[in-house]
Backbone:
């Protein structure tokens, strides 16, 4: 049974906002993939509805467990996450130039999506262990870089999944800064990184697929690939710009159903939304995302212990980075790295991991008072 006091502290606003964003995502997916002329209607939106139902059940199950349980077994689940990343490279399913999926009977899932959560839980446990120390020393930092950064990044870049690798890197940096890493240590690591950048960059660059290299080059010079990724970005800007101040209206957009904009129901779903709802609708959407981000930082500030604080910070950083990177991609101010818009982009694994992440956030918020020690 769930303690009645926990239900009294349940954040219904957070749940309402995440479900609302997911349903807006379904509406936008339907609009982006709706049939034109005699084209057949694809069932993306129906699949997304099924995943919302499953994700909601997973969310409720997760909040019923004390997050201390996840912290207790953090290293075990981190090891399982690394094993899954290795299995992807050995027996994973290939698709669209990448090997990122594992087939489990009738279900296919992307382990790197869930690994981000395991990464945050384990890093929270490790950083909490350093309570009372005057910042993070050099030995601790080196150990953390090797265990929590280099190993998973190498495995993820091998798939390759540049978007997830970048998100993990940003989360790591943000969390160690929040934990009070010494300035001298950060400066030393920065200098070492700059010195090793040509060598590491060469390794990373050689490991990327041709289409990923083209995405980066196109970001630097949008005219470098006008019929490829450059076309995606240009059409995305056209979609957003054509929405104007108040938008064309729901189901009145043309960029999605007429297939002018590729990946319109996944990476570029914000472009479809902005075309139909315009600047005003985009402001409302941004407010909804900022509400969740604010709730995350507020939860971290009010958490009952360091573990809860770091968990809330990690989840909020991840959510924030995905939001800003995806919107930046659609506006052409960020490279196209395959980062979905949280809760809205089509994809069952990504949606489930979003709900689980926010379930951890809700978990920490519900148990933030001292009487639950």
Residues:
């Amino acid at each position: 049974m769930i303690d009645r006091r926990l239900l009294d502290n349940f954040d219904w606003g957070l749940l309402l906002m995440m479900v609302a964003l997911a349903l807006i995502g379904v509406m936008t997916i339907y609009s982006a993939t709706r049939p034109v002329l005699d084209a057949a209607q694809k069932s993306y939106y129906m699949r997304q509805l099924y995943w919302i139902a499953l994700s909601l059940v997973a969310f409720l199950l997760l909040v019923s467990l004390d997050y201390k349980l996840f912290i207790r077994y953090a290293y075990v689940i981190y090891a399982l996450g690394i094993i899954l990343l290795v299995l992807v490279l050995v027996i994973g399913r290939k698709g669209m130039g990448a090997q990122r999926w594992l087939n489990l009977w009738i279900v296919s899932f992307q382990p790197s999506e869930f690994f981000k959560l395991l990464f945050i839980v384990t890093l929270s446990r490790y950083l909490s262990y350093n309570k009372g120390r005057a910042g993070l020393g050099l030995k601790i930092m080196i150990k953390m870089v090797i265990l929590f950064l280099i190993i998973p990044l190498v495995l993820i870049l091998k798939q390759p999944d540049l978007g997830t690798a970048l998100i993990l890197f940003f989360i790591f940096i943000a969390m160690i800064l929040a934990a009070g890493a010494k300035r001298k240590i950060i400066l030393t690591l920065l200098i070492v990184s700059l010195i090793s950048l040509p060598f590491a960059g060469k390794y990373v660059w050689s490991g990327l697929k041709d289409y990923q290299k083209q995405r980066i080059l196109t970001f630097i010079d949008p005219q470098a690939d006008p019929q490829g990724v450059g076309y995606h970005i240009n059409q995305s800007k056209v979609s957003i710009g054509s929405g104007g101040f108040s938008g064309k209206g729901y189901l009145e957009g043309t960029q999605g159903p007429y297939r002018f904009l590729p990946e319109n129901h996944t990476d570029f779903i914000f472009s479809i939304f902005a075309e139909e709802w315009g600047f005003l609708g985009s402001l409302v959407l941004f407010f909804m995302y900022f509400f969740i981000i604010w709730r995350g930082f507020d939860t971290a500030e009010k958490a009952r212990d360091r573990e809860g604080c770091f968990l809330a910070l990690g989840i909020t950083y991840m959510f924030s980075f995905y939001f800003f990177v995806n919107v930046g991609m659609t506006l052409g101010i960020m490279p196209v790295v395959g980062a979905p818009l949280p809760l809205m982009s089509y994809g069952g694994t990504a949606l489930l991991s979003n709900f689980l992440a926010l379930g951890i956030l809700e978990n920490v918020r519900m148990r933030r008072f001292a009487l639950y020690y």
Notes: The chain has one domain: 4-372.
